[in-house]
Amino acid sequence: MKDKIFELIKKEEDRQRDTLMMIPSENYTYPEVRQAVGSVLMQKYAEGQPKKRYYQGNGIVDEIEELCEERVLKVFKLNSEKWSANVQAYSGSPANLAVYNALLSPGDKIMAMYLPDGGHLSHGWQMPDKKITFVSKIFDVSFYHVDPKTKVFDYDKIEKQALIFKPKILISGGTAYPSEIDHKKMAQIAKKVGAYYLADIAHEAGLVAGGANKSPFPYADVVTMTTHKTLRGPRGAIIICRKEYEEAIDSSVFPGLQGGPHLHSIAGIAVALEKAMTPGFKKYASQVVKNARYLAKIFADSGLDVVSGGTEKHLVLVDLTKSKANGAVVAYAHEIAGIVINKNTTPFDPMTPFYPSGIRFGTPAITARGMKEKEMKTITGWMLKIIDYISPYKLPGNKEARNTFMKAFKEKIKKDELLLGIAEEVKNFCQKFPVPVK
Ligand code: DSN
């Protein structure tokens, strides 16, 4: 009998084909990447670095890892005498942890983007009264904030804060900040206070590779990124550092934090990097941003509060605090209608991350299917209709009542004719844009 897991994989394949994947951190990878990741490479151990292994039988995988490292430097146009790549970290959070472990000592100071302003958990997220992350338990963390009016960073304020806090590492990057980061300015601030500058470009890696967003090179001391978002590779991570930190970073990843590298993922990353050097990828990256800008414009023109007024990247953040139903309600209704987006906190959000005031959506995956501005117009038509349709469903202010409300809302809405009708239209629409699957 066939293992149920394969039935479920098939169902997931159908879901990914028949719905609009608009979570900005998700993407369709290439069939060749999946071929590499599903290969015999997963059967090999190779602790250590290429040609300096603690295992035998590594001649071939050494070539694979070296090729992957070479491609990293080529994609980001870096000189191998000045920069070094490590492709072994299992994902973005472990990559960041490896950087802290390499460059900091317990008790050192980290200054990073505030999570509700678009930062990331792995940069040391903590609440005023509670250390949430392990990083916050080890290091002294301070967050910088967006300007309350513009919702973008004020670099003069960041500089003032850094001069007082004196971090050992200054970090930029996150998950829901729609504007580009001024890496030159951030590096200048870091230099002024004697800090390292870490640019975490997990979300933008593919946009930087494709020339659609500004590069953090040569400004940052270390750059981390995941490989499965805009870069369209498998799940994994890359750490690029100035040559002088190479040894510290490599030994921090292994044996500091990890065991054997996932060679199958490394091969998949190498395949994606080769694709990222093609003219087609450049066009793709540029179209991702064009599509997101267009979505943001239609939302803003319709009167909704688009955070920071638009986007310069692949994602759009909409604050529904003043206007319509809560982000959790809106995101769930979209899911029923075949449009998969995030509920998301927004800057100065009075709500909790479970019931946040905003929604986050993006264009990497739908652009990978070949959708352009014309299609963005169709999609926003559905999205605005859904937001308007469910606006009467107000989440109760009372915390206890919220869960009961949400349960009843989900029960009711999953049979809703209008939403299911949109889901059918979305499915037909999706058929015209095949997913990159063999
Ligand atoms: N979970 C990722 C995102 O959705 O942005 C970040 O790690």
C-alpha end-to-end distance: 25 Å
Would you count the extended β strands for me?
Answer: 17
What's the helical proportion of residues? 40-55%
Strand order of the largest sheet: 4-12-11-10-9-5-8
User: Which kinds of small molecule does this entry bind, naming each only once?
Assistant: D-serine
Shape: globular
| Percent strand | 5-15%
Tell me the radius of gyration: 22 Å
Q: What multimeric state do the chains show?
A: single chain
Mean pLDDT: 97
* Number of contiguous helices: 16
**Main sheet properties:** 7 strands, mixed
Structural class of the secondary elements? alpha/beta
Query: pLDDT below 50 for ≥5 consecutive residues: which ranges?
Result: none
List keywords for this structure.
438 residues, alpha/beta, 7-stranded mixed beta sheet, 4-stranded antiparallel beta sheet, 17 strands, 44% helix, globular, binds D-serine
Structure report:
The protein is of the alpha/beta class and 438 residues long. 44% of the residues lie in helices and 14% in strands. The chain is built from 16 helices and 17 strands. The protein has helices spanning 4-18, 31-37, 59-75, 92-103, 134-138, 155-165, 183-192, 205-209, 246-257, 263-276, 279-301, 327-336, 364-368, 373-389, 399-413, 417-431; strands at residues 20-21, 48-49, 52-53, 83-86, 109-113, 126-127, 130-131, 140-144, 169-172, 196-200, 222-226, 237-242, 305-306, 315-319, 339-340, 342-344, 358-362. It has a 7-stranded mixed sheet with strand order 4-12-11-10-9-5-8, sandwiched between helices. A 4-stranded antiparallel sheet has the order 13-14-17-16. A two-stranded parallel sheet has the order 1-15. Helix 2 (31-37) runs antiparallel to helix 10 and helix 6 (155-165) packs parallel to helix 7 (183-192). The longest helix has 23 residues, at 279-301. The mean pLDDT is 97. The structure holds D-serine (DSN). D-serine binds next to loops. D-serine binds at residues 25, 92, 120, 175.
